[in-house]
Design a protein that fits this description.
Bound molecules: magnesium ion
CATH class of the largest domain: Alpha Beta
CATH superfamily of the largest domain: NAD(P)-binding Rossmann-like Domain
Order of helices and strands: EHEHEHEHEHEHEHHHHEEEHHHHHH
Helix content: 40-55%
Radius of gyration: 20 Å
CATH topology of the largest domain: Rossmann fold
């Protein structure tokens, strides 16, 4: 980031949880940014308010218009803050146009990480992670070749200290009551089943080209250590901070510069006093193993994992299934899926569509 020049940015998903927090960051750093475009999902009222306040060159609502924004070479960087599969196509368009990406949409890498990272390399585009764990790792890594393993932390979600039976009976309200992070609904349910961590393992594999055997998950309920890496010589470097998404969002859109940001209070080890770590319970949270397996299988296995899980999460939010059914449904779809090894982007979208239809059909039996 050139200190004397405003960075030109667009936000895809400006009305969502990450998008609104990104605008709070930009408001604080007004003299550093010029907003090219804002794109919202459904919330026209909020998008209009944002347009009035932040004066982007243009706005768009819904999926139409995303291609236009992502082909607009006026952009220095685009924040991909929409949720689910709709992030993939515009991300690829932006990459082909040489625009750097601040990536909050993890499904993009889960669905097509090989293609996205290869295209980014080809076009010299930076993919800077917004996901707090990957942002942490990004901050810790100096030379990826010297890294022995990645250690991704997980808060454990609202059911960490509940029994499997209690978890099976969980209501939507209980699943949405995340103890540490304030996020969108889809990701909050994913955090309750720990599928979010599963998706993050796949995301980390692609972002840092790290073998799955060298990506570890540790439960850390306080969410102060956002992730760590172990170097080959045994040194462990971790990134810490109070749990606020403003920090990773700001890091990603101002990288490599750092500015004074939105801080509620200064960090104090003494006030935090203790940090706990424990191994994840893979029996209670089998989604993590499912994700490891999908990642190791590769090809369209992760497309299937993502599509089945996302449809099951929507069905849970609609009150059609129980929380635990999300795992069962996703596993069944994975078991029945015939993996395509090196899929094209068209094949990825085809599999995504088919799996969603199959999953919806299967859910009708519940
Ligand atoms: Mg995360």
């Amino acid at each position: 980031m050139d200190k004397n020049k405003k960075r030109k940015i667009s936000i895809i998903g400006s009305t969502g949880s990450i998008g609104t927090q990104a605008l709070e960051v930009i408001e604080k750093l007004q003299d550093k940014f010029e907003i090219i475009a804002l794109a919202g999902g459904h919330n026209k009222e909020l998008l209009d308010l944002q347009a009035k306040k932040f004066k982007p060159h243009y706005t768009c609502l819904g999926e139409e218009g995303l291609e236009k924004i992502c082909s607009d070479k006026e952009n220095d960087i685009i924040l991909m803050a929409c949720s689910g599969r709709i992030g993939l196509k515009p991300t690829l368009t932006a990459i082909k146009n040489g625009i750097d990406i601040a990536l909050a949409n993890k499904e993009t890498l889960v669905m097509a990480g090989d293609i996205v990272m290869e295209e980014a390399k080809k076009h010299g585009v930076k993919i800077i992670p917004v996901d707090s764990e990957h942002c942490a790792i990004h901050q810790c890594i100096k030379d990826i070749n010297q890294v022995e393993k990645l250690i991704i932390t997980a808060s454990g979600g609202p059911f960490l200290n509940k029994s499997i039976d209690e978890m099976k009976q969980a209501t939507v309200e209980q699943a949405l009551a995340h103890p540490r992070w304030n996020m969108g609904k889809k990701i909050t349910v994913d955090s309750a089943t720990l599928m979010n961590k599963g998706l993050e393992i796949i995301e980390a594999h692609h972002l840092f080209s790290m073998d799955y055997d060298k990506i570890e998950v540790v439960v850390h309920p306080q969410s102060i250590v956002h992730s760590a890496i172990e170097y080959k010589d045994g040194s462990v470097i971790a990134q810490l901070g109070l749990p606020s998404m403003h920090i990773p969002i700001q890091y990603a859109i101002t990288y490599p510069e750092r500015f004074e940001g939105i801080k509620s209070k200064s960090f104090s080890f003494a006030q935090i006093a203790r940090l706990d770590f424990l191994a994840p319970d893979f029996e209670k949270f089998p989604t993590v193993k499912l994700a490891y397996n999908a990642g190791k299988t590769g090809g369209t296995a992760t497309v299937c994992l993502n599509a089945a899980n996302e449809e099951a999460v929507f069905a849970f939010l609609d009150g059609k299934i129980k929380l635990y059914n999300i795992y069962e449904i996703t596993k069944k779809m994975m078991d029945e899926h015939t993996v395509i090894k090196n899929p094209t982007i068209e094949e990825i979208f085809e599999v995504d569509k088919n799996i969603r239809e199959l999953t919806k059909k299967f859910i009708q039996q519940f």
